[in-house]
Amino acid sequence: MANAPGTPPSLLDALRTRARGLANRFHREVVQRGNPQIITESPRNKDPRRYLDPAALDRFALSPLIARLVVEGFINGLHRSPFHGFSVEFADHREYVPGDDLKYLDWQVFARTDRYYIKRYEEETNLRCYILLDRSASMGFGTGQVTKWDYGCFLTMCLAYLMMKQQDAAGLSLFGAKPGILLPPRCRTSHLRQMIQTMTANPPVGGTNVATSLRAMARNLKRRGLIVLISDLIDEPAETLKSIRLLRSHGHDVIVFQIRDATEVEFPFDGATVFRDLETGEELEVDPVSVRESYLQNLAEESAMFRKGLVEVGIDYVPLNTRQPYDEAFTAYLHRRSKLRS
């Protein structure tokens, strides 16, 4: 919101001017009584298997993510589709159910197992899900057990697992200051391992340009589907909002998960605090007590702007706090979405 003439600029405006949204994305050095205390991101667990928690994934098996729009696909089921047919690229098998076209039975598998299986091809999937994961440096911030990046990776794997469980295809795009790595949607178990390896090998680094990355994605996606944006949305809010709405205008179903660390939401700092921008290295010292009210007010206004601007065009906006276990947050969202469908 613009400040009235004659009034001093808000804290968030000042921070954006000095350090591009610094309060939302910084590590901090707490300096009080001459005894500096360094609080940094949580130690990274190098084991890529940490993003596949079997107990958490199993809880999603009976909670299908239902796209609310007519999207392209090739099975009449949970997702209504105006398209029918098969491509030439083999994906995997599924068990035969009455009504399936017998010409797609795999007789060689039947000869070995005495069971009927249908050949599935890449274009047969109900839905293509594109997961867009922000890997800018601000996502590496965290004061709890996980960083925002780890939280986003957990969500990515839960969602990809769920999509494949319901015979849909999931892809992954990592972006920062510009469009980055892209794994096309696939519906194979091996694709999950490839997604994990990609996230592990490409930790958060560099700056952010959400708008540019999303506009490039909108130009490159020729087929409608489900787009899931996972980001802290720390960038110019108006341009970011406009670019997300652009994806919806192209016919995609869109979900936005905005991840914030608990300290970013609560701003619990005391004493002189030096904030350091993870993306530029710029530092700014402030007195948290004197600016807390202004900061929280501006943060609430920004969240309200995203909520209003996204929901009014049919985009799901889901703010998340890293203090809430990711599996609980995702399960709660699936429950709300299924109620909207019923």
Describe this entry's structure for a reader.
This protein is an alpha/beta fold. The protein folds into two domains: 31-39 and 46-69 and 126-341, 3-Layer(aba) Sandwich (Rossmann fold), CATH 3.40.50; 90-124, no CATH class. It is 35% helix and 20% strand. It is built from ten helices and twelve strands. The protein has helices at 11-19, 54-58, 107-113, 148-165, 189-201, 210-220, 237-249, 262-266, 288-311, 326-341; strands spanning 26-30, 37-39, 90-95, 117-121, 128-134, 169-175, 179-186, 226-231, 253-260, 273-277, 283-286, 316-321. The strands form three sheets. Strands 7-6-5-8-9-12 form a six-stranded mixed β-sheet, with helices on both faces. Strands 2-1-10-11 form a four-stranded antiparallel β-sheet. Strand 8, helix 7 (237-249) and strand 9 form a beta-alpha-beta unit. Helix 4 packs antiparallel against helix 5 (189-201), helix 6 (210-220) packs parallel to helix 7 (237-249) and helix 7 (237-249) runs parallel beside helix 9. The longest helix has 24 residues, at 288-311. It is elongated. Mean pLDDT is 75; it is low at 1-8, 15-44 and 72-88.
